[in-house]
Amino acid sequence: METGPRTTPATGAPPTRPPAGLVALALGGFGIGLTEFVIAGLLPQVARDFDVSEAAAGRLISGYALTVAVGAIAVTAATARLPRKPVLTGLVVLFVVGNLLSALAPDYPVMLLGRVVAALCHGTFFGLGSLVARRMVAPERASRAVAVMFAGLTVANVLGVPFGALIGDRWGWRATFWAITGVGVVAATAIAVLVPGWAGRPAPGEDEPIALPAQLRSLLSRQVWLTLTATALGYGGMFGAFSYIAYTFTEVTGFSDTDVAWLLVVYGSGLVVGNIAGGRAADRNRDRALLVSLAALTATLLALGLLAGNPVAAVLLTFLLGVSGFAPVPGLITRVTDAAHGVPLAAGANVSASNIGNALGAWLGGAAISAGLGYTAPLYVGAGIVLAGLLTMAWAAREPVARR
Questions:
Q1: What is the DSSP letter of 107?
Q2: For residue 145, with 0-12 CB atoms within 10 Å meaning exposed, 13-18 middle and 19 or more buried, which class applies?
Q3: Looking at per-residue confidence, does 137 or 303 come out higher?
Q4: Crossing angle (nearest 10°) for helices 328-339 and 122-135
Q5: pLDDT range class, residue 12, cuts 50, 70, 90
């Protein structure tokens, strides 16, 4: 394994720009993120075209999320002994096939199948891609490298729904999936050309493939499970609140339905900032950065619950929700993979943990509303969940995990 810092050949100084391979991974993340988020703005059109209920159309979202949670482990395990570059390229090809199925779908079952096929690549791409990303830079820049790869996902969060709505309104929802298919083709080509490594052999500095039993043993570490738990609770608290944020905006703050779209852009912009800031902070002091960001997320959720009736405060806190919500992500990924000695299955498990947390948070937030606690209740529930994640992280931080 290569342990020395990567430097520019001409000067011997650390590179100031992300390696081209990182940009290629970010492009793949952008396409996959579009697939995840774009459907929300297209559901009414899809439901009308296929003559299905709103609930059935909604399964195009929930089915995707469930497949991500399962596929992150299953696909990572199935590809455990294969070189990483061919796997990443193949995953984006699978993404292209899934979106092509959606674009051509003659009926609802085929559309759902396309969503499932596309979702199969999601968890393993981000998990395995994070391991490849950190190998392209010096060890002390690992979290920033992961943040660059995830930048595609955060930008997709900002642009996904308006992008889908714009193209869908002008040319129909199928045109949106054709466009995403094109992004996938470009991303697969970029990864094949720019990411280090070649078929059948590891890239320079890449660990040799690890057998599945050895990967499973690496997951038995207490630090792995504490970090995975913190991941699930951190994501779950934020997503549990965010799932119902439109109701908070309209029923509590007093915004109109049409205002929700730009408010979501405000939130997505916060994700972009949080991703960058969180990666930099984690490279300086990872555990401290995680504790501070989870504490900030807890405080932001509580403040938004208390001040949701004030439009100015609501907008500002929505931006901060995005910042504090995504700031822990790069550090949590590098921490769990370091604790598991760099095995790909740990990165896949991290994605699964986040999706399990999302489902738990959304369910608890919905239960709070159903219990008659009001549309700010998911914010307080989310704060409680994140607080549990903060306490878990504080326990884990008593034994710092060495960087690999």
A1: S
A2: buried
A3: 303
A4: 80
A5: very low
